[in-house]
Amino acid sequence: MRGADEHLSIGERIAFYRVRRGLTQAVLANLVGRSEDWLSKIERGERQIWRLDVLAEVARALRVTLGDLIGQPVLVEDEQNNDDVPAVRDALMNPQRLSRVLFSRDESHLPEVSQVEQLTSTAWSNYQDGQLGKAIAVLPQLIKAAQALENERVRDGWRVSARVHHLAATALSKVGEADLAWIAAERAMGAADQSDDPLVLASAARAGTHALLSVGRYDDALSLGETARSWLASRLREGDAEALSLLGMLDLRMAIAAARRQDRPTATRLLHRAESAAGQLGEDANHWQTAFGPTNVALHQISAALDLGDSTYVAEHGPRVDPAPLPVERQICHHINVARAYSDLAQDEAAIETLLDAEQRAPQFVRHSVMVRETVRAIHRRSPVTMGGRNSDVMQLAERCRAV
């Protein structure tokens, strides 16, 4: 953990960085347009900040990253308790990336494009199946292979490298490693530029919007998404299901960015545009690992409503949406959103039950989720002894998520 301890709540982290900056509660509250009483309650844990746009505003005032406030994890263990994120970091920050002139390549160990492509496809499948540890464990090997393929400067190599780095950006964003996710997204788009394939570039742009969302740069996410969408739409072939899926997914990512900056009209417009694309597609598909279709649009409508503060709507309508047609990763994200809405409404037993069901399906996705950790921590702090004791489901889940 960089900075404040990972077991601190968001409010405690705000207090930690505020004191380090030498700011009083009154000054910080004024900087974000809030009352001193509001900030005092946040720091004491009497109130929670669930809106990411508010957290991003506080982070800017404190001159720290959004990840510093949310609490970025540094451990993502596989089944053998091996933590592979440091190895991913080493692969992304390999000094040989700095100069092709200074570092000659060893052509005797050049990987086969088809082999790297197959391994990448398997890793994407593991990620979508909820096996986060498996996906992250193979990333160092894939990143090194992708870098070797880039040195050959052929289209197929660039295309595969873009897909590898897209997966890295997506997985790293999921576990709160926002800075590394941005590096990976930048590499994905750089490789996609060289691939001369519009679908590869549009897919990589989705990784870029995801990374920007992770660091709270919602305006930039909207700008990138709209630019990529307009560019791809001008090259869209009639009835092209792959392009239609990428267009729709860019709309969904932008809708979430708009919702997080509390722009309801823009979020609604983008969701309607994605709904139209899903109607044209006519099914729940998974072209380019988008999982795009009518069901994913419905899940993003719920997610956007949560970001807009409509917790009552999410708690009521979220459970009615069946995410079963989609990959496990999307299903788990939906369950986490519903649990957060329950928690917002102090329906703690329903929240814990939903999270436990999700954890059973995909333990690593749940245990390494920043939002799950903060939700469980909030529930644990307000739980009565009978519900939050050592042997309770709340306490045990909190320990597995490292929330306490």
Please tally the helical runs, counting DSSP H or I stretches of 4 or more residues. Answer: 22
The global form is: globular
Give the overall pLDDT as a whole number: 88
SSE order, as H and E? HHHHHHHHHHHHHHHHHHHHHH
Low-confidence stretches: none
* Counted beta strands: 0
Q: What is the helix fraction of residues, given as a range?
A: 55-70%
The percentage of residues in β strands lies in under 5%
Rounded to the nearest angstrom, the radius of gyration is: 21 Å
Give the total of domains.
4
The biggest beta sheet is recorded as: none
Distance between the termini: 15 Å
Q: Quickly give the structural class.
A: mainly alpha
GO cellular component, one term: cytosol
GO molecular function: DNA binding; DNA-binding transcription factor activity
Protein name: Helix-turn-helix transcriptional regulator
Pfam families: HTH_31
